[in-house]
Amino acid sequence: MQTSFVHRWGMPVIALICLVLIFFILNREFPNFTIDMTFLQNFKTIFLSIILEAIPFVLLGVLVAALLQIFVSEETVRRFVPKHPLLGILFGCFLGVLFPLCECGMIPIVRRLILKGMPVYVGVVYIIAGPILNPVVFSSTYMAFRSHPEVAYGRMGLALIVSIVIGLILYRFVKSNPLRQTIAHNTVQQVEVHDHSHSHVHNHDHHHNPPTRNKSFTALGHASDEFFEMGKYLIFGAMITALIQTMMNRDVLVSIGDGAFSSHLFMMGLAYIMSLCSTSDAFVASSFWTTFSAGSLLTFLVYGPMLDFKNTLMLLAVFRAKFVFLLIGLISVVVLAGSLLYSNIFL
Amino acid sequence: MNSDRSRSWHYGLRACILFGFAMFIVFLVKSDNILYYIAPRMIIYVKLAALGLYAISVYQGYLAVQTLRGKEADCSCDHPPSSSKFKNTILYSLFIIPLLLGFLVPNSVMGSALAAKKGVNLSSSNSVKTPPATSSPNIRTEEEIDKTIMEENLGADQLGEMFKSDQFTELYAKQGKQLYASDLIEIKDDIFIETLTTLDLYMDNFIGKKLEVSGFVYREDTLPENQFVVARFAIQCCSADAAPYGVLVELPRAKNYSDDTWVKVSGIISKANMHDMDILKLDVQSIEKIEVPANPYVYPNYEFEP
Question: Which residue from A126, A254, B39, B59 lies 20 to 30 Å from B179 (Cα-Cα)?
C-alpha cells in the first residue's frame, strides 16, 4: 500500500507546488509572502478545522466498513442491490437518502461494499450522488438560497441526472475491477482476481477465529488500519486546501472567471480546490450570487461534492489511479455539459 | 522475531497518535477553544469522535503489547506495515504534523488577514434579493402585521408599504418592521447575518436610524483613511467555510484603531457606494474598544423567526 505512495505521488505533488508558486509569482503575491505568525496561525486554524470536522465522519465510515466486513455476508449485499443496471444505479443514487454521509465517510464503506460484491457502478454512483442527494444537503441549500428555490431543486435534479449518466457509462465500459486490491490483503493475491474469488479467500482467512468474541476486536483492528489508510490522504488534502485558502486571494480568482463559459470552468476549479463539505458549500455559493450566474453556481454546487482535492486523494487510496482519472474526466465533462444545458433550458 | 518487533513499534506509534488526537480534542473542548475550529452544532460529533479515537488507541496499545510478547495478532489479514523506514517516516509525520501544530502553535481567532483573502461581504441580502423585473408584479403588501406595531403611531398600511415582501423575504420584512420600531437597532450575535440581511434589504427605510454593532476592524485597500469595516466571521460547519460579514463605518479618528482591534460602534445609518453597489454605511457617533468575545464567530440561524 504505501510502497508506491512516494513514488507515485512525489512528482505530481512537486509539480502542483510549482504550479501554485508560479501562479503566485505571476500574480505578484509572492513578494509579500513571508511566513509570519499570522500566516501560520491561520493555516493552523483552517488545516485543523478541516481535520477535526472530517474525523467523526471518517471514523464512522471506517467503523461501518469494518462492521460490514465482519457481520454482513456477500449474500446479503447481493440480495439487496437490484440486478437490473438502471435499478441498481437508481438504488445507488438514493442510498444517500437513507445514509446521509459526507464523502469522507462514504469511501471506505463503498470499498467494503464493492469487495462484498456490490457492482462497481452502483458503488461509484453512491459516492458521487450520496453527498448531494440527501435531505441534509437539500435543506441547507434551500436555506442558503431562500429566494431562489430553483437552485436547490436544480442541484438535486442535475446531480441525479449526472449520476445516472455516469453510472450507465461505467456499467457499459468498465469491466475490470478498479479497486486497488493490495490495500487490505496484499499478501493474498498476486494478480488481479475477480472480486468474488477475492472475498472468498478473505472469508477463509477469518474462519480460524473463534466466532463471536473476537469479532468486535477484529472490527476495531480493521477500523484502525483503515483510519490510517484514509487519514493520510485526508490530512494531505486538508494541508493543501488550507495552504490555498490562506495564500490565495479570492478577488484574484474572481477576476479570472468573467464570461459565460469560463465562469463555469472557474467555478469547477474553485469547488475542486476549496474542498468544502457538501452541507456547507451552499452558503459559500450564495455569497457569489451577484458576481456569478445561477448556472455557474449550480456547477459549483454539483461538482464540488462529487469531486474535490480532498476526495480525489481519498479515491486514490481505494481505486486504481487510471480509474480515478477516468472518473475525474467523466464527472467534469458530464457536470459541465449538464449544467450548461440546464441553465440554457431553465434559468 | 524481527518483524514482530517492528509491528509492535507500529502499533505503539499508532496508539500514541490516536491518543494524541483524542487528547487534543479533549483539550480543545475543555478550554472552549474548539469554537475556533468547529461550529457549535458540530461539536457533539467531534466529542464522540474523541471517544472512538480513544477506543481504537487502547486497542492498538493492546496489540503492541501482545505482539511484543510474541503472540500473533488475532486477525491475520492485517496488512503488514511497510518495511521502508523512509515511507513510514513520511506516513507517520503526516499524522504528527497536525498534532504538533495543534499543541504548539497557539489557537487564534481568525481576523483581518483571512478576511482579506476571503473578501468581506458588505451586502448580505444578495442571495435573497429578487431582481426587480421579475419581482415587482408579485409584490404583495403583507397583511399580517404584529399587533404591537399596529399600536405604534405609524399606520399599518404605511409600514406594509415600506416593507414590501414576497414569499421569500417575508421573515425579513417582519423583522424589518420590528427593527424600525426600535430607537436603537442592535445587531445581536445569534441573528447577526439575518439582521444584516434585513437592514441591507430595506436599506432606504433605515437611513437616519441609530445602529449598534460590534466586531473586529478590517480595512480594504480601496477604503479612504476615515473608513473601515466592522466585521464578523460567519461559520457553517468549520473554519474552512468561514465567510466574513461586515458593516462599513466612517469616523474621523479611524486611524487610531488598528486592524483586528475589537470595537463596539454605534452611529447613524447612511448609504455608500462601493464596487457599483449600494451598501450600508454607519456614521459613527460613539466607539469603544472591547475584549474579544467568548465566541467571536456568528452562525446562520436556522430557527430565525422574528
Answer: B39
Closest by Cβ to A186, choosing from B79, B105, B110: B79
A239 to B102: CB separation less than 8 angstroms, yes or no: no
Tell me which chain A residue has its CA closest to the CA of residue B165: A147
All three cell numbers of A209: 477465529
Residues of chain B in contact with residue A239, where contact means CB-CB under 8 angstroms, are 97
Q: What is the pTM of this model?
A: 0.77
For residue B25, give Cα distances in angstroms to A107, B48, B297.
Answer: 24, 10, 19
Residues of B whose CB is below 8 A from A100: none
Q: What is the pLDDT of residues A141-189, one digit of tens each?
A: 887 777 778 888 989 999 999 999 999 998 888 777 788 764 444 333 3
> What are the b/e assignments for A151-179, b being 16+ CB within 10 Å?
bbebbbbbbbbbbbbbbeebbeebeebbb
- Cross-chain Cβ contact A224/B106 below 8 Å: no
Chain A residues whose beta carbon lies within 8 Å of the beta carbon of residue B97:
235, 239
* H or E element, residue A232: helix A211-247
Using DSSP, state whether B236 is helix, strand or coil.
coil
